[in-house]
Amino acid sequence: MDWGMKNRLSSLMGPDGKCMFMPIDHGYFLGATSKLEKPGETIKPIIEYCDALFVTRGVLRAAINPDDSKPIILRVSGGTSVVGGDLANEGLTTSIKDALRLNVAAVGLSVFIGSDYERQTLLNLGKLVDECEEYGIPVMAVTAVGKELEKRDARYLSLCCRIAAELGAKVVKTYWCEDFDKVTEGCPVPIVIAGGPKFDTELPVFEFVRDGMEKGAIGVNLGRNIWQHEHPVAMAKALHAIIHKNATATEANDIFNDTKNG
After folding, report:
1. What is the DSSP annotation of 56-81?
2. DSSP assignment, residue 198?
3. Residue 229: inside a domain, yes or no?
4. Does the residue 255 lie in any domain?
5. Which are the catalytic amino acids?
6. 176-186 pLDDT, tens digit each
7. Which of 54, 107, 162, 164 is the most exposed place for a label (fewest CB within 10 A)?
8. 128, 139 in Cβ contact below 8 A?
9. Position 252 in a domain
10. pLDDT tens-place string over residues 96-150
11. CB neighbours (10 Å) of residue 116?
12. Does residue 179 come out as left (phi exceeding 0), alpha (psi in the -120 to 50 range) or beta?
């Protein structure tokens, strides 16, 4: 692996090789998502706990301070919306030249395995990897499932992650599931855990993150379960403890309550 590629990847991780990515890219298909109407303000109290931001170029330029920013993973796929026909019908929306202008550490796009647009999104990934390898930019593939969340089982996610790795992704973002070790063991590149829908209580979030880390994930890419929470700082601090301090779910829950009440 070239020095530039290694350097960019290392910038996304803590010294322990673990990572807490914070996605605030939801507006690219959801519009002004609740609590993310002003993304720059939303992340101010919690950005210290994350290792990198996953964001679109529009929000990056408009809302993120370039003088004091975390490393950036740039969302470069899109073309559909939540009110459109099919969320899987994505294309590449951002050029490598613009990614270089923005000095990003990595780029990310979604692939929709098993959808009507499977071939299209996988070819998007292959094309993106070709272009990014030329400039030493890592690609993070997101194993998206659109509105069909019932697909999130180990057999399906293992298939998705392995295909993404085979096509050249350096990191894969996927959902936690039961038997998560079957997903990580079949993927030769690092996996980070997506958050999925917002939970009503905190402990289930801490439990699935802890389980995923124990079963081979290097970190998380969580957004709504942090910045949509009534106590986002407490959530961020608790999750950071699981990822970087090896806290258990119960210990993280204690950190959450202490921070919330303190």
Report:
1. -HHHHHHHS-TTS---EEEE-EE---
2. P
3. no
4. no
5. 173
6. 999 999 999 99
7. 162
8. yes
9. no
10. 999 999 999 999 999 999 999 999 999 999 999 999 999 999 999 999 876 555 6
11. 10
12. left
| Domain hosting residue 193, numbered range | 3-223
Q: Which residues have C-beta within 8 Å of that of residue 234, sequence separation ≥ 6?
A: 255, 256, 257, 259, 260
From the number of C-beta atoms within 10 Å of its C-beta (0-12, 13-18, 19+), residue 213 rates as: buried
Query: Chain-wide mean pLDDT for the chain?
Result: 95
- What confidence category does residue 200 fall into, taking pLDDT thresholds of 50, 70 and 90? confident
Whole-angstrom distance between the N-terminal and C-terminal Cα of the chain? 46
The CA distance from 90 to 127, in Å, is 14
* Token pair recorded at residue 6: 């290694």
**Nearest partner of 89 among 54, 124, 131, 141, judged by Cα:** 124
Give residue for tokens 């392995």.
162
What would the two tokens of residue 28 be? 């690219």
pLDDT above 80 (res 195) = yes
How far is residue 185's CA from residue 216's CA, in Å, rounded to a whole number? 8
Taking Cα atoms as reference points, which of 43, 47, 74, 69 lies closest to residue 58?
A: 74
Within the chain, where are the H helices? 3-11, 27-30, 39-43, 57-63, 96-101, 118-135, 154-166, 181-185, 203-214, 224-227, 232-245, 249-261
Beta bridge pairs of residue 221: 21, 194
In this structure, what CATH number is given to the domain that contains residue 75? 3.20.20.70
262 within some domain = no
Total domains present in the chain:
1
